[in-house]
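Worked example 3. Consider a protein that binds fe (ii) ion.
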Amino acid sequence: MGMMSFKLALVLIISGVAYCNGGTSSSYVRKTQASTDLPLSVLSSPPGYNAPEQVHITQGDHNGRGMIVSWVTPLEKSSNFVEYWKVDDDKNKQRAYSDSKEYSFCNYKSGHIHHATIKNLEYNTKYVYEVGNANTTRRFSFTTPPEVGPDVPYTFGIIGDLGQTYDSNQTLEHYNSNPKGQTVLYVGDLSYADNYPLHDNRRWDSWGRFVEKNAAYQPWIWTAGNHELDYLPDYGETVPFKPFTHRYHVPYKASNSTSPLWYSIKRASAYIIVLSSYSAYGESMRVMFEPWFVENKVDIVFSGHVHAYERSERISNIAYKVSNGNCTPVLNSSAPVYITIGDGGNIEGLANKFTEPQPSYSAYREASFGHAMLEIKNRTHAFYSWHRNQDSEAVLGDSQWFYNRQWYPHEESSTAGTVA
Ligand SMILES: [Fe+2]
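Given these inputs, the predicted complex is written out as structure tokens:
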């Protein structure tokens, strides 16, 4: 089944590669100062006593018939279920019960964090769901993906390093305005709460409230980044990823993974592998994984961490070992395209210092905030586009038709800067 799909890998890569002359560097110059976080007062809790907040969903099984619904009740545990029904059948309401947990971090104590997994949903069906209690309920909806298959059209949004600034808001609003997006591939670095003293975890809550306008309606496929580590041993916080793993559940057991930081799912026409660069990161991770990407014809690798946008040619560097010094990436039609999309708009601002001259592996690069869309059309073709925040959604800052490496391994051509 894996051979039938577009293969995508999500990873937050820490170290990059550097070498020789290449494609297009955008001449667009934008402000480079750090962005400002939205005030907590803007990202406040919804009205009503103990109102459920920070509602978000993600795929809850391997094939797309499950959904994990998550929410936080700030004051009391109740109620511990989500009620759901098909949009045209509200006589048949069903419930899935949640596990809820609290955690503390330094001087912070969380609300009750609920996760309920809904199973055996029908494919390609719109469901309404409701969380809360007698006093305050909140209602949302989602649409399940079509059954897994090679020719199922399906569109992903790709967002990374979002944070919760005015620029982050522009990115999220921009993505929200695109009616094609069905699921978000999120490449790590979520709230940037660790930018605050003692990693003020109220900023994890405000981030959950911030992304709810999309994440309660579309599943976000989560990848962990370095800003999820929250490791503060001097203050007794010695369990890495504690806030992240309490708040964001993923279906890692469905792919026989032993860690929520590593898992895979199938969704419509995509086979998505989520990797974490916090086990064996950097060069050792590249040495381990790059040959597997090439051998298995991974179509695209999406990464975050660097706060800019860059798309590579199909290149491989698998001949390189530290011991032989043969460090020259070469064009390889079985290799993935590597896309860095850490330009969601977080508080750290843009990374605008590129390797000069532009390396040969680099097809397009630009230091602007934005998001990307991947429209899988069928087993052979997918249309990819990158959208700058400062443009209207119809403007494509960068785009490429992708040809599936398994079914149609022909050379692609890209068209940076075209308008739809
Ligand atoms: Fe980041």
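Take a moment to read the result before moving on. Residues 13-20 have pLDDT under 50 and may be disordered. Helices lie at 166-176, 202-215, 242-247, 283-295.
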